[in-house]
Specification:
By secondary structure, this protein is mostly beta strands. It contains three helices and 16 strands.
């Protein structure tokens, strides 16, 4: 498991409480994998799990939202500040299994791990369709445009795109596969729609993590058989039909 001290290249706000951090790419990640980040000298005990957004050459971009002390600490970091970067971790999207028409569905900060999937599918000669949903003002959706056949936006406030939920933008029966990441209620709704349509769907879970390597069991979820699954080790990407989204 690679773990190194790196210097922040840039750390810019791209939306309300949303930041894009650029770091050196010391290893080549798979789309859908994630990293554990901890500022050097931090008084906080645990690192924060942040999804890979994209890699361009020798630069990683990680998209994250301020939701607590750990991400607030990351947001305050400046270029040349040091942090410990552990990863890439997790299994990533099963892009080699996908064929035909592919749809990407993202909600809020859950759009982050879908950008690298869009880029990879485009380079495979199979650009996906993409539907992104936001509560209010959209953010970081422009980078998707070069890699997607079609890009649709939904906002609950109606400030941009179609007013309403992202699930109102598509019919999963028109696709051969769906990749999804976002708030749990949204992912559950997407999985239910895909089940009804008979369309395979994969989800990237955003459970809280502590170790990132499957040792602490903090990020455990349950599958449809009631068995525990470690989001960091067996995931974060799972077949949607396998995951129990109910409490």
């Amino acid at each position: 498991m690679p773990s190194e001290i790196v210097s922040v290249l840039s750390n810019q706000p791209v939306g309300e409480d949303v930041f894009a951090m650029e770091l050196p790419a010391l290893h080549t990640p798979k789309p859908g994998q994630f990293y554990m980040l901890r500022r050097e000298g931090s008084a906080l005990l645990l690192p924060r799990a942040i999804s890979l957004c994209r890699q361009e050459g020798d630069t990683l971009t990680l998209l994250y939202k301020i939701v607590g002390k750990g991400t607030a600490e990351l947001a305050a970091m400046k270029p040349k500040d040091k942090l410990r970067l552990t990863g890439p971790l997790g299994n990533g999207w099963p892009l080699e299994e996908l064929s035909g028409k592919v749809l990407l569905v993202g909600g809020g900060i859950g759009i982050a791990p879908l950008l690298s999937a869009a880029k990879a599918l485009h380079h495979q000669g199979n650009p996906p369709d993409c539907c992104l949903g936001f509560p209010h003002q959209p953010f970081y959706h422009e980078p998707f445009q070069p890699y997607c056949r079609a890009l649709q936006i939904a906002t609950e406030s109606g400030v941009a795109g179609q007013k309403g939920l992202v699930t109102q933008l598509f019919d999963p029966g028109q696709y051969d596969a769906v990749l999804c990441c976002g708030p749990t209620p949204m992912m559950k709704a997407v999985v239910d729609l895909c089940k009804a349509a008979g369309t395979p769907v994969w989800v990237s879970l955003e459970n809280r993590m502590a170790c990132g390597v499957g040792a602490c069991l903090v990020c455990t979820c349950t599958d449809h058989q009631g068995k525990n699954r470690r989001t960091c080790k067996e995931g974060p990407v799972f077949r949607g039909e396998e995951i129990n989204f109910d409490p």
